[in-house]
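INFO worker-7 received task bundle
INFO bundle size: 2
INFO processing item 0
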Amino acid sequence: MNPPLHDERLHRDREAVTTEQQRAIAQEAFIYGYPAVEMYRTLYTQALDAQSPNFKAPMNQIGHTAQVFTPSDTAFITPNSDTPYSFLWMDLRAEPLVLDLPAVEDDRYYSVQLIDLYTHNVAYLGTRASGNNGGRHLVAGPGWTGTVPADIDSVVRMETSIAYALYRTQLFGEADLARVRAIQAGYRVRTLSDFLGECPPPSASVIEWPRPPAGSLDTPALFRYLSFLLQFAPTSPSEVELRGRLNRLGIGAGLSFDETRLDAETQAALQQGIADALVSYRHFAQAELSTSRIPSAKIFGSRDHLGNRYIRRYAGAVLGIFGNSAEEAVYLGYYVDAQGQALDASRHRYELRFAPGQLPPADAFWSITLYDGQTRLLVDNPLQRYLINSRMLDALVRDADGGLTLRIQHQLPEHEAQAANWLPAPSGRFNCVLRLYLPREELLHGDWSQPPMIAIPQQANP
């Protein structure tokens, strides 16, 4: 509970802010804070709520998902079924952690994506960043000034003291699950003191984790959770003025924002600011994402890459939180057909054709995954097939000229050759994401473009 004098000062500060200023700050705070609160919802269900069906492991311990994702997995939207995940939520307040990686086969992709509380991709370990030979890597929180041990291969310094390590291990097929589990067993995490065989430093204070909201985040309640989370995120020099503006609304580390105690006029101003933020996002998505050749490259990456354009970070949290940076993987979405119409398998069947020599250019692998258009989760289907990827090429039927045509529709195609290339869709709206891991230069530099999704009326079935 805040001291009375603190409450009085905060009350005076709020009184000094006009309604229009409250609205403008709320718009800014919502765009800025939404990704962190959305990330917290995942943290809570994966590492804090042991009764959650999506619980993985407590803080500073690794949990594994050693099977392909299915429609029953709902922890986060647009899940990737090519690479079973391992999950490590890190509390770096007391001391750093040491992450051990095993050596893996040269033709198998694996990675560790290190994400701060803002959802910035701070660094990577694994195939591209550190190779497939394994190693020991130290992850430190802000302000750590200790000595790095001699047998550490790299040091990653996080901007926030609560952070996430998301591991991906490429799966070659159902028969490969045992090997993936063996690799996952080689992922190890230790505190630095345990790694050194020394007495641990004093424990960090116990955190009273609030249960996150179950529904929409589009209310001033988001600012209460943002204030809680900012205690783990020291102010970046580039954000001093921004944090000052947030403080004027009572949002900040050490402040107890409580939307229920606000007067009706202030509540209305904050809600209008949130509405303004949603409008600004729609304008951004239309102007920059819908016209971008590689939209994922605009919304996922480091702080330096995103350039403190918080609308980009917000878009990433909305469209598929924890997406990879472009040099690691590129995501190309299919939300409309070649005519600009929303994908709807109750009205059409679809064809996606890669011309000869024009398969997706990726040094690791590529994959196209289908999602429900409303929930953005995987779609239940009789084949239990949720994606088609480059590891499946030998089982797919090529066109007469050597190209490849994928059939995306609700009903089983009538011809056997088409059925082999079938990606089942729901009887309604859907979308697809084409992922390319370790994308090649021709994609990043614009020499390769994704082919369009072609709609064919249902009655046109041969």
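INFO item 0 finished
INFO processing item 1
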Amino acid sequence: MKRELRRILALLALAVLAPGGRASGQTNSQYYFIRQIPLGGVAGSPSLTIDAEGRRLYITHSTHIDLVNLDTGDPCGVISNVPSPRGLAIVPKLHRGFVSNSREGSVSLLGLTTQAVTANLKAAAGTVSMLYEPGRGEVYAFNTRALSATVLDADSGAIVATIPIPAKPGNAVADSGLDRVYCTLFDRNEVAVLNTKNHTFTGAWPLKPGKEPAGLAVDSENHRLFVGCRNKRLILLDDHSGKVLSSVPIGAGVDATAFDPSTHLVFCSGSDGTTTIARAETPDTLAVIQTLHTEKNARLMALDPLTHKIYLATTDYEAQLDPDPGVPAPRPRTLPDSFKLLVYGAAP
């Protein structure tokens, strides 16, 4: 009887949010379409980065960077003097951004107040993904062709270290409380672990049953990783040990994964026109609560932690005729000047 009473009290404690619990800030509201923001032009190889403090969304293209005001939803500028922008890391306290240039293997230093490039820094071949690690005030540039991470001092821009990585690095997150940076290794079905104190690769964790990891997000409070995988699985990982704790189904073609620490919701956006929304019910469990229907190829996403809105990027496509039986359907062509953002939020 006493054992059963203790079990009930423990469950009640979770419900009122004991440390690591999940009740505070939760929302049971379904996400819905709010608006479309036309940007025009072609998508190129875009990425979406939120500056929550500066209230700007940065959308990189192959030739320039679009800016959107997060409070009004209106386009508010274009940065065109960057060579081949792909990824962007925001350093809020310095009002500075670091932009990767994939073709040049370089990083452009961007003043967020002036929206002007102040320097171009050498990285390595195939610089794509960017990450700011606030614990040590450093920026990581992940080089897909050089198989490495270039570590830059955020204040001076000087190269601090180059970390070899045994496979092509993808999306990355930091858990400063554990002095670690993590990045996906798509071809190896693993997450790489980098030590931020001595700038070394310390190992890689398998993601079974996940394969082809693409999206990556972190819950720094509970030291958990969320890995969106292309075999339509979302993996919950203990980032102390690398142990797989939970797995739930998601849509096809996932590219981005985001975690909202206030609502404990995890978002996985895919090219199949769906964004799967799961809730971290406890630090060790996930549950899918909504399959949000978006648009085809809306796989790139950013989450505004203040408003809890998500922003997805996509383009419009030409209508296709049904192919003849046994003939593969041709790849759909995008309509010119149709690049846009789709905005979704929780119902009030």
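INFO item 1 finished
INFO post-check item 1: The CA atoms of residues 46 and 60 lie 5 Å apart.
INFO post-check item 1: The chain has one helix and 28 strands.
INFO worker-7 idle
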